[in-house]
Amino acid sequence: MTAGADAYKLMAEYYDDAYAAKKDLVDVPFYSALARCVGGPVLEIACGTGRVLLPVAREGIEIHGVDNSPAMLNVLRKNLQSEPEEVRKRVSVSGGDMRTFRLGKKYRLVTMPFRPMQHMHTLEDQMDALKTAALHLDEDGVLAFNVFYPRYDLIMSSMGEEIPEMEWPLPSDPTKIVKRYFRKESVDKINQSFNGTFIFRTYQDDRLLKEETEPFKLSYYTYPHLQALFQLSGLESVEEYGSFAKTPLDNDSMEMIFILRAHPTKIVASVDYFRSGGSVHGLKHS
């Protein structure tokens, strides 16, 4: 990302409509349930347009969102205006880089939903992002985040091809359809990342009206890599899942989902309590 530039300006324009059309995106109930279980205040890092943040606020929980994209935050602030006053009062937002921001406040729950850690492309950046999260946890607080489980066959496939991903009607004119494609252009196996381009095409009656593009880079992680990062960042994993249905993290998993503590002094014995709907390791809503 170029200094001073907003790498997500185009993505922000289409983000809410695109992901509303993505029916297999099922992370919101997981993070909302976790917020209800742990209680507020909550800090969401890389909050974007509020796709996860707003449902948490609707649960009656105070939440602060941080993002480095002014375009994303502008959409979030616009979305907030459509919420009832009691929801708006629970939400605060600020701009900031997840590697460096410091709010001077502690939170019972810090979340990084929908893979912002995969936008950290160096070991230093990855450690700094996790340390930022850890520094904002209160004494009994927990951090939750997810990344995708790497499928190397998919990562290395379809190079240079335009892959259709999703489509949706343009809200301002439903006679127009936006279709999003992704073209993978390179893979860096050493640094575990790939580069590509998102392509947004707007159609009316199968006639192409407009084409827009935005570059995209994503890192991927192995399980041992993440465990090493946790140790280097002063974190310890206390619960791990392979899906948002809380299935075990194993070879069938599509996601790697972690709940962590910073420098834990006491780990409650029953790691199954949250799975059954209870509090996370003794944390109760107050």
Q: Topology of this structure?
A:
Blueprint: H1 9-20, H2 28-38, E1 42-45, H3 53-58, E2 63-67, H4 70-80, H5 85-88, E3 91-95, E4 107-112, H6 123-135, E5 137-148, H7 152-155, E6 162-170, E7 173-188, E8 193-204, E9 207-219, H8 223-232, E10 235-241, E11 255-262
Parallel strand pairs: 1-2, 1-4, 2-3, 4-5
Antiparallel strand pairs: 5-11, 6-7, 7-8, 8-9, 10-11
Helix pairs in contact: 1-4
Summarize the structure.
The protein is α/β, with parallel strands linked by helices. The protein has helices at 9-20, 28-38, 53-58, 70-80, 85-88, 123-135, 152-155, 223-232, and strands at 42-45, 63-67, 91-95, 107-112, 137-148, 162-170, 173-188, 193-204, 207-219, 235-241, 255-262.
Describe the structure.
The chain is α/β, with parallel strands linked by helices. It folds into 2 domains: 9-150 and 221-262, 3-Layer(aba) Sandwich (Rossmann fold); 152-219. Helix content is 25%, strand content 34%. The chain contains 8 helices and 11 strands. It has helices at 9-20, 28-38, 53-58, 70-80, 85-88, 123-135, 152-155, 223-232, and strands at residues 42-45, 63-67, 91-95, 107-112, 137-148, 162-170, 173-188, 193-204, 207-219, 235-241, 255-262. The strands form 2 sheets. Strands 3-2-1-4-5-11-10 form a 7-stranded mixed sheet, sandwiched between helices. A 4-stranded antiparallel sheet has the order 6-7-8-9, with helices on one face. Helix 1 (9-20) crosses helix 4. It is globular.
